[in-house]
Amino acid sequence: MIANLSSTVSSDKAQADRAPASSVDALYKSSLRVLRHLLRNPMTLAGLLVALLLVVVAAFAPWIATHDPVVQNLANALQAPGAAHWFGTDEYGRDIFSRLVYGSRITLYIITLVTVIVGPIGLFIGTVSGYFGGVVDTVFMRITDIFISFPSLVLALAFIAALGPGLEHAVVAIALTSWPPIARLARAETLSLRKADFVVAVELQGASPTRIILRHIVPMCLSSVIIRLTMNMAGIILTAAALGFLGLGAQAPLPEWGAMISTGRRYMLECWWLVAVPGAAIMLVSLAFNLLGDGLRDILDPRSE
Amino acid sequence: MTMIQAQSLNLSFGVGAACNQVLHDVDLTVEDGESFGLVGESGSGKTTVLRCLAGQYRHWSGALSIAGAPLQHKLSKEHFRKVQMVFQDPYGSLHPRHTIDTALREPLTIHGMGERDDRINDILLKVGLNDSFRYRYPHQLSGGQRQRVAIARALILEPRVLLLDEPTSALDVSVQAEILNLLADLRQREKLTYLMVTHDLGVVSHLCDKVAVMQQGRIVERLDSQALSQDLACHDYTRMLVQASRDFSAESPRVASA
Amino acid sequence: MSTLKLTVDSLNVRFVNGKKETHAVRDVSFTLGREKLAIVGESGSGKSTVGRSLLKLHPGSTQITAKALQFGDVDLLSASEKAMQKIRGQRISMIMQDPKYSLNPVVKVGEQIAEAYLAHHKASRSEARERVLLMLEKVHIRDPGRVYNLYPHEVSGGMGQRIMIAMMVITNPEVIIADEPTSALDVSVRQQVLNVLEELVVEQQMGLIFVSHDLNLVRNYCDRVLVMYAGRVVESLAACDLQYAEHPYTRGLLAALPSMDNRRPRLPVLQRDPLWLTC
Question: Model-level pTM?
Answer without folding.
Answer: 0.85
